[in-house]
Amino acid sequence: MTTDLVLFDLDNTLLSGDSDFEWAQFLIRQGVLDREIYEARNAEFYEQYRAGSLDIHEFLDFQLKPLSRHSRSDLDAWHARFMQEAILPIISPLARELVRSHQESGALTAIVTATNSFVTRPIAHEFGVRHLVATEPEQVDGRFTGAVQGVPCFREGKLTRVDQWLTGLGQRWEDFASTTFYSDSLNDFPLLRRASRPVAVDPDPTLEQYARDHGWSIISLCVAA
Has 74 been annotated as catalytic? Predict the structure, then answer.
C-alpha cells in the first residue's frame, strides 16, 4: 500500500536548539575539550551554518576528531548525561506530538540530519523514530577514527543519503502518495524543494521569506521561554 513519507530535520526543528553545538559545549563543561581552544571555534562554526557558509568538511574535522580520542564507554557515559542535561530540556511537547501524529497515521518517518549519528541516534530513539539518516563517523573495531564515512548528510548530501536509505528499503520517492519535510534552515533547500509538502519550522530569515513567497507552511515547535 502506498503511504506517506515524512522527514524531519533535527536541530532547531524537532529540537529547540542545535545538538552539534550543544555537544561541543557539553564536552567543554566536562573539561574534555579545552574551553580556550574550542568555545570560540564552536560558536564560529554555528554562525557559519546559520549563514549558509559552512564548509562541512572543515566542520566535521572539528566535530569528529574528539570522538577518536576517547573510548566508546566514556563517550556513551558522557552522552547519557548530555541527553539529560542538554537535550531533554529542548524537546517541546509540540515536537513530540507532531512526530507521534505522523507515525500514528501510518507514514514512513525518518530524522534526516547533518549532525553525526553518535550524537543523534539516542535523540531519534527519544522521539521513537526508528529511521535515522545522519552523517556517519567512521569506525574501526568499534572505535571512531575522526573521519567521516560516505557522503556527509548536508545540503545536497541529504538528497543523496535519503535516496540511498530509500533504496535500502526497496522504495523510491515516487512510491509515496506525499512527501513532507520539516526544516528550519536555508541549508535544507535541496531537500525542501524535493518534497511535495515542504514545511518551514521556526525558520531562519532566508527560509521564512522564501516560504512566504512560495506558499509553504510555516509552523513553530519551539520550547516556550
Answer: no
DSSP structure class, residue 188? G
The three grid cell numbers given for residue 186, joined into one nine-digit string: 536555508
Does 142 have pLDDT greater than 90? no
In the block, residue with C-alpha cell 529511521: 131
Query: CA triplet 65, 156, 48: central angle to 5 degrees?
Result: 55
Distances (CA, A) of 119 to 4, 56, 225: 27, 16, 25
Domain count, the chain: 1
Domain that holds residue 9: 4-219
Catalytic residue among 9, 20, 184, 204: 9
Q: How confident is the model at residue 133 (pLDDT cuts 50, 70, 90)?
A: very high
18 is catalytic: no
